[in-house]
Amino acid sequence: MVLKNLFKIFLVLTIISVFQGVQAQDNSRSGVTPLQILLPKESDWNVLDEGKEINFHLQTKGGKGDSIRYNIVSGLAKDMKFDSLGHFVWTPGYDVADRINTTKFFPVVFEAQSLNGETASREVVFKVTHVNRPPQVDELKPFYIQYKTQNLYQVDMNSVRDPDGDPVVFIPILDGGMPEGMKLTAGGEIMWEASTKQFNTLKEGPRYMEFYVEDQPSKARTKGKLRLEITQMDLAPDFTMVPQNPVIKSPENVRINLRFSLSDPNGEGDIASFNFISENKNVPKGALVKNTPTNYEFIWEPGYSFVNDPYDTLAFNMTFYVMDKSQNKREKTVRFVIKNTVDQSERDAYVFGLYKGALVNAWGLLEQMQEKESYLKKAYSRAKKGKRSRSLMNATLGATTGLAPTFTKPGSDTRSYITTIGGTTVATVGALEATEVIGKSTNGLLDRFNYVVQKKNELQNKGDIFAREYSQKSTRRAPDFIKRLDEFKALMNLSGLVALELDANWENKKEATDAAIKKTFKDFMPYSKDEN
Fold first, then answer.
1. ∠ CA 476-480-484 to the nearest 5 degrees?
2. Do 326 and 362 fall within a single domain?
3. What is the model's pLDDT at position 471?
4. Dihedral pair phi/psi, residue 53, rounded to 5°
5. Do 62 and 163 belong to one domain?
């Protein structure tokens, strides 16, 4: 029966094998291959630059069906366009990579699917390289020249920018119309005192000077042009502010520093004043500092009390203005937002007070226990001496009583007196000693002495650990400081301390100075405001 069943199984497997072989031969004869995705054959076709478009169609081969639909399984990035027919278009933006990370990789998995359910996928890794763009220079305000004056001009940095965010420098073009004697700094400041001939030439008509704006470190250049002309009218002065933020946000106790550069087409001598008006009257006028006639600084540090609780922030406007002698004025408004913060120095001082106070209590208790230890030590010594004296007296009186018949005459009354007094005294002293009425118990004194020493050593050890662990501000700022402080203080309030028989009215004769505390707890650190 078993052989019959094995034969049936062998027959079925043979038929299946023959069927698969026939099917494979049919596929081979018909030339059917698995569905595959074809990619462009050009070398480095998947390597592209920022701002450069890539455009291609996916193709397939193999498979049983002719109708293929495409999609992206993963990796679809911003601005990528791909339809079901396999058309892919992508132009990577200039913000994909930068001058530090010059390349970036984008893996994309494409999938093709036929109507018969056949699928094929393929991963393509696009490599995008950074493309440096040259700086951009907008039209600049004219440089108005005044006769017999050292004219200063600062190129407006709002009109010069680098699209990649690269730092830029200014480079003069000597053969680009730059007049003799003119200086151009790398920061875009122009200095020129025109001679009589040069000024008369400008009277005939405006002139232009050219310069380069070069980004770093790629050294890409863009040519800028500045119009030079003499002052025809009393133009309003102007100023620039660094940083150029219209909103200044700062926490309390942090210095705010704004720098101002003033200019006037008619020359700096025409500038009459530069000042500010604040909506908040607590901003001091002395915060504005004059360095030179054309250079000012606003230096202000709002204190911890500037924003009063319960407010989180305090916002107000300040208007800075420059005015010339003809009352021409230019102004800019800046909004200040001051955030309420905790005075860390005050909290540090408060927490240090808790730290030191606990150690002062421990120091005082140790001093009292030291006195108690000395007292018990002396009492124990006196008790031991008293017991030896009583034993010597017992022995002396007993010997006197026993020897009385020897050194007294027979029948004498003296013998009976000695025996009576000596025996009675020995008996009385022995009874008193047995009940420890005379003197104190040496055993009790020794037990209390050992207990005091044990508690003193325990408090000294815990105090050394506490003083060392929280000697720095940073550790006292930790959240677990208060918990550890309570644990240390609880050690000094143990009910077992009652057994020490310490005087509740005891007063320490020594002053709790930093030096005294440090002598007891060597890792104690006095408070320092300069400590971080």
1. 85
2. no
3. 84
4. -85, 140
5. no
pLDDT in tens, 364-395: 888 877 777 777 777 777 777 765 555 545 54
pLDDT at 525: 84
**The tokens 């100023």 sit on which residue?**
239
Residues 6 or more apart whose CB falls under 8 angstroms from that of 433 comprise 387, 390, 394
**Could you tell me the residue range of the domain that residue 284 belongs to?**
238-339
Q: Is the separation of the CB atoms in 176 and 214 below 8 Å?
A: no
First to last CA, the chain: 93
Q: What is the pLDDT of residues 308-366, one digit of tens each?
A: 877 889 999 999 999 998 888 999 999 999 998 876 677 778 888 888 888 888 888 88
Query: Per residue, what are the HEC states of 259-281?
Result: EEEEECCCCHHHEEEEEEEECCC
How many C-beta atoms surround the C-beta of residue 216 within 10 A?
12
Nearest to 153 by CA among 272, 290, 268: 268
Dihedral over alpha carbons 442, 446, 447, 451 (to 10 degrees): 150
Q: What is the mean pLDDT of residues 465-469?
A: 88
**213 with 137: CB under 8 angstroms?**
yes
Residue 108 lies in a domain: yes
- Return the amino acid letter for 240: T
**Does residue 532 sit within a domain?**
no
For 58, 105, 109, 131, 191, the CA distances from 44, given in Å and listed in that order, are 16, 13, 18, 17, 51
At residue 432, the pLDDT reads 47
pLDDT score recorded for residue 355: 86
